[in-house]
Amino acid sequence: MRVEDPHMPTTPITTRFPETIYEAFYEDSLPIFLLMFLIIVCITLLTWTLHHQGIIRFSFCTRRHLPIDPTYPHPDGLLSLTPNCYSPSQALHHLISILTYFHACPDRQDCASHYKAHELWDLSVQKDLFELEMLKQERSILTRYFNYFNRLFFSSGLQEQNCSLIFVPESDKQHKECVEVGLWGATQIVNNKKCNILIYEIAEEDPEKRAREYVGVLLHEMLHVFFHLYTCHCQKCDRRTYETNGYGHGKQWQRAAKLLEVFLASELNTNINLMRYASLGREIAISGKSWTPLSDAELKLLGMKRGNVENWGRHYTKQIEHGKTIY
C-alpha cells in the first residue's frame, strides 16, 4: 500500500526545453559565457605583455623563413645564405654556429692563421696604417680587416655587389654633423639588397686608440649590414625583435655584438668595443622613452647595467632637445 506524502506536489514535474537559440545560449548559459570571455581576455593580455617584454616571442611573418642548415661543420667551411629570407633569430643562430664550430672549419682556421701571422690582432703594430692618407687608399688597412671579418664571421656574405666600404674624410659636410653627436660610422641602406658602410675620419691623437676605434666601428656596421641583407623585410616579421625603434640596436643585434667582442678577445687577442651601450642609449632617446626595452634578465645576459644604458639614453635625449640629429 502506497502512502501519499502530503508535502509532495501533485502536479507532475516537466522539463522545459528552450524554444529559441537565444534562450538556449544567452539566457541559460550567460554566466558561463561571460566567464569564458573574461578568461580569454586575461590570457590574451598576459601573453601580449610577456611578448612585449621579451619574455616570450612570436613570429608573425606571413612568408615562410628558409631554414638554415644546422649540420655543421660544412665540408667547404662556408654556408651559402639566401638574402632577405631569415628571421633575425635565425641570423643570430647562424653566427652562433660559426663561432661554436670555428675550430672545425678549415677555411676559417686558415683565415685566422693569416690574421695572426700578419699581426692584425695587434693594433699597436698596425696603428701607423690608420693615418688619414693610408685610409684614403683603395686597398687600405680597413679593407683588409673587412675581408678578414667577412670570411671569419659572415660566411663571405658581404660582397662587392651588396656592400661597399666608403671612407668619409673630415672635410666632408656630413662628417661634421655626425661626429658632433658621437657617430663615427653609419650603414647607408640603398635597398634591401645593397648597403654602404660609411666610416668617418676619427680625430683621436693616440694612434693605437684611433686604430681600435676604427676597427670597432667597422665591425659594428658590418653586423648591421649582415642583418639587413639576410633577414626578412616583411612588415609582420619578427625583425622587430632586434630593432627597438627601427635603428637596429635591439636584442638580437646586441647579442651578436656581445658574442663577437668576446670571441675576438678570447680567440684572436683583439680587444675592441662595438659601442653597445651608446647604441642602445640612442634607441631609448629616439623612441622618446626613459627606459630600455630590454628586461633585466636580458641586460644581464648581455653583460650590461641598466643604469649605464639609461645614462646614455639621457645623454642622447639632451642632444635631441638641442636640435641634434643622432641617427
Structural class: mainly alpha
Shape: globular
Biggest sheet: strands, sense, closure?
3 strands, mixed
Average pLDDT confidence is: 77
Rg, rounded, reads 29 Å
Tell me the strand percentage band.
5-15%
Q: Span from first to last CA?
A: 99 Å
- Biggest sheet strand order reads 1-3-2
Order of helices and strands: HHHHHHEHEEHHHHH
Quick one: how many beta strands?
A: 3
Q: How many helical elements? A: 12
Uncertain runs are 57-63, 70-78, 241-245
Helix fraction? 40-55%
Describe the structure.
By secondary structure, the chain is mainly α. It has twelve helices and three strands, in the order ααααααβαββααααα. It has helices at 21-52, 88-100, 106-117, 123-126, 132-136, 141-153, 173-179, 207-230, 251-267, 276-287, 296-301, 306-321, and strands at 163-168, 185-191, 194-200. Strands 1-3-2 form a three-stranded mixed β-sheet. A hairpin with a 2-residue loop joins β2 and β3 (194-200). α2 (88-100) runs parallel beside α9 and α6 crosses α8 (207-230). The longest helix is centred in the N-terminal third of the chain and has 32 residues, at 21-52. It is globular and about 80 Å long. It starts with 20 loop residues before the first helix and ends in a 6-residue tail after the last helix.
Task: Please summarize what this structure is.
The chain has helices spanning 21-52, 88-100, 106-117, 123-126, 132-136, 141-153, 173-179, 207-230, 251-267, 276-287, 296-301, 306-321; strands at 163-168, 185-191, 194-200.
List the helices and strands and how they pair.
Blueprint (H helix, E strand, L loop, with lengths): L20 H32 L35 H13 L5 H12 L5 H4 L5 H5 L4 H13 L9 E6 L4 H7 L5 E7 L2 E7 L6 H24 L20 H17 L8 H12 L8 H6 L4 H16 L6
